[in-house]
Amino acid sequence: MTALPSPAPAAAPPPAPERTKHRLLELLKRGGPQTVQDLAVGLGVSVPGARRHLIDLQEQGLIEARTERPGGRGRPQHVFGLTDRGEAAFPKTYSTLCVDVLRHVQELFGEGAVLQVLDARSAELAQRLRDDLPDTLPLEERVRRLSEWLTGAGFDAVVEPGEDGAWYVVERNCPNLTVARQYPQLCRSELGMFVGVLGVPVTRETRIACGQGSCRYRIGP
């Protein structure tokens, strides 16, 4: 009896799209800006396939395209690199570093020194923001611009109108949560910055660092 031929081994399934995108981000993180051809080789996919993933990541704001000359000479070529948002997708130890620095400040100079350091930082930020939020603008416009800046800084902020003429800024994320939980002076300093920028009373009603779902600020009378 003639033996039947063994079935051919099944082809390995293609990598999941999200896994491929993650590998693409890792290639850019480790190798810096690269062309679509280089990335296709690194991923083991076709150039059109790599381009599709690049377009998706661009739409998500994780990478950006720019034109560079290799080694500063030669024909310009399009390369892709990580944006700040793309960089933020990788683990960072900034919060640990910040906590360590504030702990040493407190041990060396006392608890009040921590607030002084954070207040100085907030005052500098407020000075920068005043250029974009001049007193000549209506309060609503200034609150909305502040909310946009906060969102860009990672706070995922939205503006809500109040029933009595006040406005509310609601921060749905706290990028500084690790620090804020150990040093509430950071939240006090943020509140002072809002007052310094807007020039009106500001009251914090809820706080993420206390276990609530958002940091909610009432702005105005």
TrEMBL record:
Stored SUPFAM superfamilies: Winged helix' DNA-binding domain
Domain HTH marR-type, chain residue ranges per copy: 19-73
CDD domains in the record: HTH_ARSR
Domain of life: Bacteria
Entry's Gene Ontology molecular function annotations: DNA-binding transcription factor activity
Name listed for the protein in its UniProt record: Transcriptional regulator
